[in-house]
């Protein structure tokens, strides 16, 4: 497996619990496992700044390898970003170009829950083809993935927790659900932190018991808390602290001498003070998510005219991209701006992940 540095992106970073030290070179150890943990809406301040309380993350960053910044993809949304994390290619190639499916013909549809929507080979495809065992726990866009242990990320249109819990339990194997619940009698979801707790409990059950060679794990509450309360709110700081505690419990169950842990983020957050309303028109189909909007002209002959008109009227209020100019510019910007990884000045004396 290629180092995550070169293959992956993310505003955040990561701490490799054991790969940054000469004491445990990856290339000479055959019985190794990889755990890729995505914290939604994660960014380097969370482990670099004294304003945030995250002892486990800070310990990992101090004793492993961490980044000061990384570039995400365009559009910087959860589902496109997570598909890039597991394919190494941009959304224009893997096809997950938004959180939700949409088209001029059908309008806005469901979220991109299905693994079959990803049009590029994934990490779990490659791992399974190589005879490795794989666990997926709450990773976006993986419904139907052919892996050994699977806990879905799936939810209804209304963010109704009872409905979401029913969808999760319906879309996973009953034996595995019973096994997790036997070890941790979970009452269902009452909030997004409960979703992360179930993810934690599933990981604590699956990883030490079955020791999958590749595990993908995704936590959601930090993202939703930032959406609701702001990127540096007291609630966000509390959510980070809570998540860090869950990570500590999970990481303490792993055999870190044989495990490389990557902690990444899919995108960060920016404050904004203005919005742009994209008018509906019979001539265009539009769909906006986050800080971007897709505009399709229903008459393909007018594509170039539309593109030029949008550029002419931008006046620094927005940036216009097209499939013709997006990829080379993004690749060049990424090559120019992606910083070199910062290596630790010393190797950890202990691999304990408990906070100092
Ligand atoms: Zn996200």
3D structure, described in words:
The protein has a single domain, classed as Alkaline Phosphatase, subunit A (3-Layer(aba) Sandwich), CATH 3.40.720.10. 35% of the residues lie in helices and 13% in strands. The chain has 13 helices and nine strands. The strands form three sheets. It has a five-stranded parallel beta sheet. A two-stranded antiparallel sheet has the order 2-3. Strand 2 and strand 3 form a beta hairpin. Helix 8 crosses helix 9 and helix 10 runs antiparallel to helix 11. The relative contact order is 0.20. The N terminus and C terminus are likely disordered. It binds zinc ion (ZN). The site of zinc ion has 6 residues, from loops.
Number of separate structural domains: 1
What's the SSE pattern? HEHHHHEEHEEHHHEHHEEEHH
Return the average pLDDT rounded to an integer: 83
- Strand-pairing-aware structural class: alpha/beta
Oligomer type: single chain
Which word captures the global form? globular
Helix proportion range:
25-40%
Q: Any idea of the CATH class?
A: Alpha Beta
Count, helices: 13
Strands in their spatial order, largest beta sheet = 5-4-6-1-7
Instruction: From the 3D structure, determine the CATH topology.
Output: Alkaline Phosphatase, subunit A
Number of strands: 9
Low-confidence stretches: 1-29, 340-356
Which ligands accompany this protein?
Answer: zinc ion
CATH superfamily: Alkaline Phosphatase, subunit A
Gyration radius, rounded: 21 Å
